[in-house]
Amino acid sequence: MGHVNELPCNMIIDTRANVSIIRNDLAQKLKRETYLEPTPRGATDRDGEKIDIHGKLKVKIKFGDATYQHAVYVADIADPFILGLDFLKEHGFTLDFNKNELRSIHEEVTIFKIEHRSESIRQVTANENITIPPRTEIIVPGYIGNDVSFNSGLIGSAENKANGLLIASTLVDLSRKTIPVRICNVTEKPRVFQKGEVLATCSPVTCVCKSSSLLLSNSPQQLTPDLLENAELSPEQKKSSAERLFQEFEDVFSRNSSDIGHTTVTQHRIDTADHPPIKQHPRRLPFAKQEEVGTLLREMQENDIIEPSSSPWASPIVLVRKKDGSTRFCVDYRKLNDVTKKDSYPLPRIDDTLDTLSGHKWFSTLDLKSGYWQVEIHPEDREKQHSLPAKDYGSSKSCRSGSAMRQLLSSA
């Protein structure tokens, strides 16, 4: 416990912090004669995330009977006050870890370790052997153990930045056996994790606030009031602006479930070199499902997603029940993938992407209607995606590759 401008304050001594920082709300409580100097300096927290610096203050820091003048930065941080290396060096302080004391020529202050901070943070380890290609981002399964006392956690960095890895901050459900860890390898070399190796850290989350989402219709007439509800326009201006907007870009919106769309920007290739065709037997389907499969196949053919085929390649279909009770038509392409040359499309540089967003205030997002079905498979490779339901049917004309989709989006 110390004082900042006579205000009592719990202080954290952080030898990893290069500067001393006071929390913004605490800085507001200081006496009015304290002057906030603007500063262009940026900072990062212990997880490597950027912190916005509001300014710089000259304050009086008091331990016992000794008072020290020092310049501190103001930022939105979790701790009320962080004493960094700049303060320790400038005023000649040393740390005695054996006696838990902070010493100077004027004072000997007893400090306390905060053990619960490190105990609550758990390590997330690799659930299997993992290889992350250069300049690529993937989601890998992680394991945290069974003796976890909290239900939700926040994934963070585990000192991997020095190795060129970025760990995305992610809210995860710890009741599952494995948790997703999003890792980006920004180097030019592949990064290998062995099973059991530490991927990231997981901190407890005590409260998760549920947010509601606004569902918008695909119809331009129904989209109009929702999109412009909060705009500073008169009702007449809102209606007129919406009508012009949706008339101009009418071909962008999907009007119904069969209006999927089609792109000519790229075509997906399936490079199997000289490997002979792979043909698997169809899986048995319950009699009640066969009619449903026939309906799905007819719909896909009518929407120009599949076409009849007599290909020597064949993969079995798999029916997956969705949450809403409908059926998702899937194909087991694992054996085909085993003989296909991997197409790992690198992520664009994040800093270049952020530069293109600089100076803009409004951002739009578009959700693709069955995005994978909008990308064509090259005609020479379509026979390789031949699927077998209970009866022989046809080949897919649409893409099912994540790398092809990333390539398309980066070209848009």
TrEMBL record:
InterPro entries the UniProt entry points to: DNA/RNA_pol_sf (IPR043502), Peptidase_aspartic_dom_sf (IPR021109), Rev_trsase/Diguanyl_cyclase (IPR043128), RNA-dir_DNA_polymerase (IPR053134), RT_dom (IPR000477)
Pfam families for this protein: gag-asp_proteas, RVT_1
SUPFAM superfamilies hit by this protein: Acid proteases, DNA/RNA polymerases
Residue ranges the record marks as coiled coil: none
Region listing for Disordered, in residue ranges: 383-412
Protein name as catalogued: Retrovirus-related Pol polyprotein from transposon 412
Organism for this UniProt entry: Trichonephila clavipes
Domain Reverse transcriptase: 301-412
GO biological process: DNA biosynthetic process
Lineage: Eukaryota, Metazoa, Ecdysozoa, Arthropoda, Chelicerata
